[in-house]
Amino acid sequence: MKNVKSDLRSLSEKIEQSLTLKKKSLKRLENKKFACEADALGAAKDFEKHLKYHQLNRLEVLATPHYKPPGKPRPGEEITHYTYQIHASLVKNEAIIKTHQLQAGRFILATNLLDEKKWTQELILQEYKAQQTTERGFRFIKDPLFFASRVFLKSTKRIMSLAMIMTLALMVYSFGQLQLRQALKNADATLLNQKGKPTAQPTLRWIFQCFQSVHLVFVDGIKSSIKLTDRQKLVLQFFASSSHQYYFLS
Q1: If you count Cβ atoms within 10 Å of the first and of the last residue's Cβ in the chain, which end, N or C, has fewer?
Q2: What is the DSSP string of 146-183?
Q3: Quick one: CA torsion of 28, 29, 31, 37, rounded to 10 degrees?
């Protein structure tokens, strides 16, 4: 239902944008003069072919007489020729728009799972949408900082091992992010995001970046203390107490 509303809203915006652009094009066409009525009607038909969501309404051809010499004609002045201009307005093509509205939220989904009893249409759609969570989790691979293009594995076993490690890392990452967001929700609290605005849905990646400036202090070779900012101390309040020991907070 969410996708349908989003597609309908996007369609409405496209229709309005198209109307604005086509009105300007129609105005230029109305200012154009043609040598005969057939040419004017032909230009109007060609214009209408390029309309996606609208159609011409109240189309008419206006004939303008011309005299020699030019200017205001004198009584009985002979007409030398006529020029023709079209005049029309744009209205929505309801049939076309209705077709686009019925297609909102729809897409083609193909599968080789042909057992309709085991794999119903609803289940296949559910499994397809579930992939998006994993795909979003691995989008960091496209980040230039990850240097994925420099990883070369020839052995099938090594590729499978790397995939397993990455999946395990993603699971831990997702669990940590869920735990943080749940703690914020329970406390009705927020943290500042990258833009300095409060959010109750921070990404764990951003939290990691906030801890890049942690300094570990050693005195006579013994770990003494860790310097934390107020923001870092605030963030740690929403993690499990077991994580506090790494920062000498427990």
Answers
A1: N
A2: G-GGG----SHHHHHHHHHHHHHHHHHHHHHHHHHHHH
A3: 180
Contact 210, 231 (CB under 8 A): yes
Alpha carbon distance 238, 178 (integer Å): 11
Q: Interior CA angle at 46 toward 40 and 48, to 5°?
A: 105
- Please tell me the predicted confidence (pLDDT) of residue 69: 75
Angstrom distance (rounded) from CA 190 to CA 184? 6
Query: Is the dihedral angle over the CA atoms 126, 128, 130, 133 positive or is it negative?
Result: negative
Element (H, E) at 68: none
CA distance 109 to 162: 30
Residue 223: strand pairing partners: 218
Of the candidates 75, 72, 48, 70, the one whose C-alpha atom is nearest the C-alpha of residue 59 is 48
Which tokens sit at 4? 């349908």
Q: Percent of the chain scored above 90 by pLDDT? A: 39
Distance, CA of 141 to CA of 135 (rounded, Å): 10
Contact indicator for 174, 137 with CB cutoff of 8 Å: yes
Q: What is the CA radius of gyration of the chain?
A: 34
